[in-house]
Amino acid sequence: MAGRGNLRWFGISALAVACDQMSKVAVERLTPEGYNLPIIPGFLNLVHTHNPGVAFGLFSDFGSPWVPVALVVFSLGVIALVGLMLARGPVDTLRRNTGLALVLGGATGNLVDRMLHEGVLDFADFYAGEYHWPAFNVADSCILIGAGLVILEILGEKSGTAEIKQ
Hints:
Layout: H1 4-30, E1 36-40, E2 44-51, H2 66-88, H3 94-117, E3 120-128, E4 131-132, H4 138-159
Antiparallel strand pairs: 1-2, 2-3, 3-4
Helix pairs in contact: 1-2, 1-3, 2-3, 3-4
């Protein structure tokens, strides 16, 4: 059972889900599939693309009907594990808990899309010259930033540096 101190992290997750879903609804309603608008020419485009794979387009080319099922099952497992870690973990580790909350929110946001649309809507398309990053969304950003924060926390513990407390 989550202690009162840990409940705030679920609020951060809920906020991440809300931001993700609102941004996807806006792109869905305001742009047609295949839309591509340069926001910062040579660096960032607003696009409207459907991704049946995972973050940043991974596994989107697999033709197996089991891939969507496997991704939903995997997402549910991640959500359950991260939720348990947040509920039972230490309350006073800001970097760790913020990272886990962002991962939880991002995984949940993309799971909602998978359940409703059999894939996720991606809309941020970054590139520089020939170097191109696959299109992504707010949920993918939350997962990436959250995982980075958790990794920094782990590296900080191994190096003996003081952890960030609330």
